[in-house]
Amino acid sequence: MPESLTTKLTRWGVNFFPAFRGTGGRITCIASDRRYFFTSCISRLNSDVK
Fold first, then answer.
1. Residue 22 burial by CB count (10 A; 0-12/13-18/19+): exposed, middle or buried?
2. What does the pLDDT read at residue 49?
3. CA distances from residue 10 to 37, 42, 45, 46, 49 in whole angstroms, order as listed
4. Tens digits of per-residue pLDDT, 9-22?
């Protein structure tokens, strides 16, 4: 089932919000009733940290 326009715009809005964007996490899917959502996290390791 394709994603609705409202959930797509909500997902884009949250993903581009600076505080959420800086964490490296992304919302990949939002349920049509907004009861749940799926996220993905990208690990950003800095090799200079000891």
1. exposed
2. 55
3. 11, 21, 29, 31, 35
4. 888 988 888 887 87
Taking phi first (over 0 means left), then psi (-120 to 50 degrees means alpha), and beta for anything else, what does residue 19 get?
alpha
**CB–CB of 9/37 below 8 Å?**
no
Q: To the nearest whole number, what is the mean pLDDT of the chain?
A: 80
To the question of pTM greater than 0.85 for the whole model, the response is no
DSSP assigned state of 10:
H
- Amino acid 32 reads S
